[in-house]
Design a protein that fits this description.
The protein has 331 residues and is mostly helical. It has 14 helices and no strands. The protein has one domain. The two termini are 33 Å apart.
């Protein structure tokens, strides 16, 4: 009997060690996620500044390299243990999506697109994330969710066609690709945040990308001219320390405390914030269509988030959660 109890105790300890801490303060989690959204909203203007001093490939490589070094220092200071082997494929998706893919594709897009234009297109990121999350987890949102999703997509397509004179540009193709890879990174990161502390998700994803970032910087810097300016340095520092590390750090931590749906709703403010920063920092002329399209997209995505909160999740024949998951009764 003691042997059985001991085995049960060890199993419970193992599960608890692989599970993030329970939510401590909904208000604190919302504040953390909100700070992440503010950090993300500054990414495009900061990238435009960074391109004043660095080429696109150099900027992305240095951004990931500096963020990875900061993450390594934080993980070493906290003496965080290495994640279990089964978590590394998911961390690779996070690294490929939010650490490498999204920064690279959006930086290339900003060579031909304005920051405000990119902000409206990327306003579909919460919707894209919801779609990939539904496919990944097998959840079944109601029809109103997909109706609002289609309306939001129509608004974005109409805006991009109007801005480009009736044809999509190469920058828009990069932005669409950025939506997909970032949504995949968010979806997988949200899944991992349920089984490991959210702040460690981005930390280990950055560590995983460190060799690639170092190699990219070594290759790109000799071939792309570097003209250091105050704007260029500030832009690089922010996209590395602010957007990539601090922003994703508080984003995943807040998402772990309040859940993916609530965190996603906070991100709906990101396009409008980026439009404000683009006007103030870059002096971009924001057309009448841009804020109108941004507001329309936010309304559509808000509708998807509201209806998606009542989604029907698949259950097994006994009406219980999936095997192997240890949970507590909901209040």
């Amino acid at each position: 009997m003691r042997a059985e109890n001991s085995a049960t105790d060890h199993a419970a300890i193992a599960v608890a060690a692989d599970r993030p801490a329970s939510p401590r303060s909904p208000g604190g989690g919302a504040l953390l996620a909100g700070l992440g959204v503010v950090a993300f909203s500054l990414t495009f203007p900061s990238t435009v500044w960074g391109l004043e001093s660095f080429g696109p490939w150099s900027l992305v490589a240095l951004r990931s390299l500096l963020a990875a070094l900061i993450a390594a220092g934080a993980l070493l200071t906290d003496r965080v243990p290495v994640p279990a082997r089964r978590h590394w494929p998911g961390l690779a998706v996070v690294a490929g999506g939010v650490v490498v893919g999204f920064p690279l594709l959006t930086t290339l897009a900003l060579l031909t697109s304005t920051s405000s234009h990119a902000a409206v297109v990327v306003g579909l990121l919460p919707l894209t994330t919801a779609l990939l999350s539904a496919l990944r987890t097998g959840s079944r949102p109601p029809r109103t969710f997909w109706a609002a999703a289609a309306a939001g997509a129509a608004v974005v397509i109409a805006f991009t066609l109007q801005q480009s004179g009736g044809a999509l540009s190469g920058g828009d193709a990069y932005l669409c690709g950025a939506l997909l890879v970032c949504a995949a990174g968010y979806t997988e990161g949200g899944r991992l945040a349920k089984v490991m502390p959210g702040r460690q998700v981005i930390g280990w994803a950055l560590i995983l990308s460190l060799p690639l970032a170092a190699a990219g910087a070594a290759v790109a810097l000799p071939f792309e001219p570097v003209h250091l300016t105050a704007h260029g340095i500030i832009g690089l520092v922010w996209v590395a320390a602010g957007s990539t590390f601090l922003g994703l750090y508080v984003w995943y931590r807040g998402m772990a405390e309040i859940g993916v749906p609530r965190a996603s709703q906070l991100q709906l403010a990101q396009p409008l914030l980026t439009l404000v920063w683009s006007f103030l920092a870059l002096g971009e002329e924001v057309s009448v269509a841009a804020p109108v399209a941004a507001v329309a997209v936010l309304v559509c995505i808000a509708a998807t988030q509201r209806s998606g909160g009542r989604e029907r999740r698949p259950a097994d024949s006994r009406g219980t959660s999936a095997p192997g998951r240890v949970g507590r009764p909901r209040s």
